[in-house]
């Protein structure tokens, strides 16, 4: 099985979240480093996180590797004091010989905070599949790191392990925080409060994308391994109870045995579904089920003709799909990368699923018009 | 580090080749199962291989998992006798409820052969980056498994551990075998020889694709890990001698320290190059160097503007690129899948590199006109 956390730079937001959860459960000390501002086009954008422990372990990359050493050093007083710190790393080089916009130059602000109860509302929301926004004082007339957590319904949680934000700050930013939570974006704002001006970093934190793989054959292995590796929470569902052995799918977070017609119950608007049972009737029932769910991506393995047969058979049973439903079906499944090996087929499928969840088409970036990072990035005001 | 061989179905042709090499070196017994014919559109195509040992280990998937058990059984007499066997698996199901064209139905012919000296010419060619074709009797008036190996210059190697092909058979098929070797395709032909009619399976075997990653920062980790996982032979090259520690890049097959202007010496027509040194001058020298090589893919990390700066600076030094050279440059690097985490950036880069080596554009398969598998498949004659 892929150990996605063995290389710190291969760790995903899901890995970081799980490490945070385990630190909170065990009560062991930890720190979180977050990029809160970047000048120029960076390798990681604001909101990128790394979790650190006093033993020097770190998980997640906030630059391409150039800052992780200094950030490990920066975390040491945080373990000792429990107080957040912030540091501006100015890697600009006057002679212009260094890389442009690759995260090893530019100016990067990094906030390092203790793993304290200010994370509990975040972790609780992620556990139930909800988004949140953290609102954190990074400058001005409030203690550094003063925090509130805003849920998508506008509810505000305030931690007791550190200072709260001054009166009025959260109210002033609440609608924008809800928007950041819902879209997974960030914003920095300076808010005028009775106590003075406070600059807050608002960080929308979304649950990991989910992949629901339907099928019990060994070829689900490469797909579930790779999906987990790139940051999906992975469920393998099989119609064959005898196959639903978690040890057969070591990368899966959950292994289910179910009736194909019930598959849709396990998919929502964050779920990429891949149908690869190798059984036409099972795939047919599963397809009809997941197209009734909110799953934005439904990959169906097999040639076009198989999908046409499935459609005809469902139509004979009175099941017709709307245009909107058909638009969510990816068959033949995957991006057009031409690989024939099982792990290359998996690469093709997982890349397409991620692209569709991100609203992309999977073509080459060099041919893309406009910004690479798309519309989800919010520019900070000055 | 990713252990790409822990899951047999995630093993690549490169893994299979390396296991074969180690079995030949150690003299331990082994067998190779190869798909030699398929009726219908299958999960794996002819030429797909699995290597097996008497202990029941197997590496590589020749179907989606439905046949691997029977093939393990089929290999047992091969270990005992050293004689090849062939079996037709007819998984057709009359009631049409089973999957169409997903490799768990249809008719599949599997040849199981011993790991004997008939593989040595194949392994020697792959080790030097050359392609070969094996020509193997699968039916007719020749011993099953009788073999010759044809190199791309037409040279024929004949093993001593098993029967050779009847006189005239190799000569009749030699030009076609050279073509199969050069294109990585297969063909089956019935050849009339003095001894009678012999049906041969001609299997073009190509070396693994190569990825040459230029850069010594930790963000090369996710790229080299993932490239190795999907079947690339990976070299990490760095201009910083102090970074050229193989332990820093555990997935790399080779770690080099070199001058950027010499990078092109390590690239040929099978090499996908990724420039990610984060140093503009180094990337500039490396780019000019690899564009003089035959590398068909040169990914350059960073925004478009950085490439324009690099071009201007090279032009000032008198280095101008031809249209053909520019067509090989991928910048911004990667497929458009919208992921921002290091491992998602790696997914985007590795997918694009594989697509380009396969002559694809990386868009969605459902939008592709014509056959999914493209023009490299050769249909067997009857």
From TrEMBL, chains A, B:
Residues 24-90 form the XdhC- CoxI domain. Gene3D superfamilies: NAD(P)-binding Rossmann-like Domain (3.40.50.720). It holds the Pfam family XdhC_CoxI. Residues 211-352 form the XdhC Rossmann domain. InterPro entries: MoCofactor_Util/Proc (IPR052698), XdhC_CoxI (IPR003777), XdhC_Rossmann_dom (IPR027051). PANTHER family: ALDEHYDE OXIDOREDUCTASE MOLYBDENUM COFACTOR ASSEMBLY PROTEIN (PTHR30388), XANTHINE DEHYDROGENASE SUBUNIT A-RELATED (PTHR30388:SF6). This is Xanthine dehydrogenase accessory factor. The lineage of its organism: Archaea, Methanobacteriati, Methanobacteriota, Stenosarchaea group, Halobacteria.
């Amino acid at each position: 099985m892929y150990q996605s956390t063995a290389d710190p730079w291969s760790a995903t937001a899901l890995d970081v979240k799980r490490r945070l959860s385990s630190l909170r459960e065990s009560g062991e000390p930890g720190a979180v480093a977050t990029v809160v501002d970047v000048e120029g086009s960076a390798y990681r954008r604001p909101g990128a996180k790394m979790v650190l422990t006093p033993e020097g372990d770190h998980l997640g990359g906030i630059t391409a590797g150039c800052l992780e050493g200094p950030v490990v050093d920066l975390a040491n007083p945080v373990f000792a004091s429990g107080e957040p710190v912030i540091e501006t790393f100015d890697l600009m080089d006057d002679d212009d010989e260094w890389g442009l916009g690759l995260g090893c130059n530019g100016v990067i602000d990094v906030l390092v905070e203790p793993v304290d109860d200010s994370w509990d509302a975040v972790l609780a929301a992620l556990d139930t599949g909800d988004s949140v926004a953290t609102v954190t004082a990074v400058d001005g007339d409030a203690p550094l790191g003063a925090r509130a957590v805003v849920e998508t319904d506008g509810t505000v949680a305030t931690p007791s392990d550190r200072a709260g934000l001054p009166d009025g700050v959260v109210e002033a930013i609440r609608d924008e925080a809800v928007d950041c939570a819902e879209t997974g974006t960030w914003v920095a704002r300076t808010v005028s409060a009775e106590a003075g001006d406070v600059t807050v970093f608002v960080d929308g934190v979304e649950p990991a994308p989910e992949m629901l793989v339907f099928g019990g054959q060994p070829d689900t292995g490469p797909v579930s391994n790779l999906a987990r590796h790139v940051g999906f929470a992975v469920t393998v569902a099989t119609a064959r109870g005898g196959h639903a052995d978690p040890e057969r799918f070591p990368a899966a977070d959950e292994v289910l045995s179910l009736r194909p017609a019930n598959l849709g119950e396990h998919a929502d608007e964050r779920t990429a579904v891949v149908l690869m049972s190798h059984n036409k009737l099972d795939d047919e029932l599963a397809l009809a089920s997941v197209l009734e769910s909110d799953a934005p991506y439904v990959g169906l393995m097999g040639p076009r003709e198989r999908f046409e047969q499935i459609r005809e058979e469902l139509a004979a049973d009175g099941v017709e799909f709307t245009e909107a439903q058909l638009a969510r079906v990816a068959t033949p499944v995957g991006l057009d990368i031409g690989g024939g090996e099982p792990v290359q087929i998996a690469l093709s499928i997982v890349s397409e699923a991620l692209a569709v969840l991100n609203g992309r088409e999977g073509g080459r970036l060099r041919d893309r018009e406009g910004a690479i990072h798309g519309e989800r990035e919010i520019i900070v005001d000055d």
